[in-house]
Specification:
Number of strands: 14
Distance between the termini: 85 Å
Shape: rod-shaped
Number of helices: 5
Structural class: alpha+beta
Order of helices and strands: HEEEEEHHHEEEEEEEEHE
CATH class of the largest domain: Mainly Alpha
Strand order of the largest sheet: 1-10-13-12-11-14
Strand content: 15-25%
Radius of gyration: 53 Å
CATH architecture of the largest domain: Orthogonal Bundle
CATH superfamily of the largest domain: Helix Hairpins
Helix content: 40-55%
């Protein structure tokens, strides 16, 4: 029995060691489980109380309102003063068109204005002349009426004299020669009455015509001055338009920025509205961030945003604010919108463009070009 005692002791020691190892392993597992639980609780707390209030996306790009330069008048390009990538300020001359036709049109418009002013002055002078003519025609009408009255009186007297002599002719008291003279006087007086009536009618017609002429001329100058007369105003408007067209032969930069997509060349015949070049205002760059629709529940206009660019890396952070949300998803405004009414439909999470304004001072310090990749994080707590 004593021969087996060492073996028994060795077995007991092994069992004790295994029990100790299992106990230590169990403690380690409990400790690991505790650590995992603490980490999970910490992460859950961080996610619930802090991280859940931020939404991020790397589907974001810089953009701006590009100004397209087009001529307001057509012509031949005489000079191009900018090149692609060149910086320009608002108001700088960038393209000059040949102004020969515009100058001739302005000279013609100025000549037409002078002629219109003289024409209106003529209307005023004609009104005074027609007023004098109207007075003369009134006098002529009165004279004709007086002459008609005199002719009627002579006719009545000649009629009475003829009747008397015809009555006395039967008794032989009046000679044939006197009767003949009386008849001749009657016929003359009758002719004079007819002529006086015609002259009176002509005088009335002349007076009426004078009234009509003055009224027709008065319409051309009624309730106006030389400056406000419609003919002069129209000629001035055409002159002003000609001046504007002459000024438009010099094309200036509408905004400050960088020249891009220049297609205009010297000697080219351009039409009004034809694109010549574009100007990118880099001081007005913003970010179009395409967030998933499930991220937008708490996104509001005015919330702060932190932005990083692939150009400068994560070491440079821009600050901005949410300026607006698009009226539809990106697929809605695509050239060929997605058609979901099909039998093999698969739901795809859509993205909505969110416009983010960038702090102007930060943008001036580190400029951004259009189309750069950006990372945007919105703080939805505000």
């Amino acid at each position: 029995m004593t021969t087996h005692q060492p073996e028994v002791l060795d077995a007991a020691a092994a069992i004790t060691e295994e029990t100790h190892v299992r106990s230590r392993r169990k403690k380690m597992l409990f400790a690991l489980a505790g650590v995992v639980k603490v980490i999970a609780l910490g992460y859950g707390g961080y996610e619930y109380f802090y991280a859940s209030h931020f939404v991020s996306t790397d589907n974001a790009y810089t953009a701006t309102e590009v100004a397209q330069v087009t001529p307001a008048v057509g012509g031949i390009v005489r000079d191009v003063r900018v090149a692609d990538t060149q910086q320009v300020r608002a108001g700088d001359v960038i393209v000059v068109l040949d102004d020969t036709d515009a100058r001739l049109a302005l000279a013609q418009a100025e000549a037409e204005l002078g002629r219109a002013i003289r024409r209106v002055r003529g209307y005023v002078a004609t009104d005074s002349n027609l007023a004098a003519q109207l007075t003369a025609r009134a006098s002529e009408q009165q004279r004709a009426q007086a002459q008609l009255a005199a002719a009627n009186a002579d006719f009545e007297r000649a009629t009475i004299d003829l009747r008397r002599r015809e009555a006395l002719a039967d008794t032989g008291s009046v000679s044939g020669d006197e009767l003949t003279k009386a008849r001749n006087a009657f016929e003359t007086a009758q002719a004079n009455v007819t002529g006086a009536r015609a002259a009176s009618a002509q005088a009335r017609a002349n007076y009426a015509a004078a009234i009509g002429s003055r009224e027709a001329n008065a319409v051309l100058i009624a309730d106006t001055t030389e400056e406000t007369n419609p003919e002069v105003a129209l000629a001035k408007a055409r002159r002003d338009q000609a001046e504007v067209n002459l000024e438009r032969t010099v094309i200036r930069a509408p905004v400050a920025g960088v020249v891009a997509r220049r297609s205009v060349q010297i000697g080219q015949q351009v039409q009004a509205g034809a694109p010549l070049l574009s100007i990118v205002p880099l001081d007005q760059v913003h970010v179009d961030a395409n967030f998933k629709e499930v991220q937008l529940e708490r996104v509001r206009i005015g919330q702060p945003v932190e932005i990083t660019s692939d150009l400068y890396g994560g070491s440079v952070t821009y600050h901005g604010v949410v300026e607006g949300l698009s009226g539809g998803t990106g697929s809605t405004f695509a050239t060929i919108p997605t058609q979901n009414a099909t039998g093999n439909w698969i739901k795809v999470v859509q993205r909505v463009p969110v416009r983010i304004g960038i702090d102007a001072a930060e943008l001036a310090k580190r400029p951004l070009q259009v189309g750069l990749s950006m990372n945007a994080t919105i703080d939805t707590r505000m």
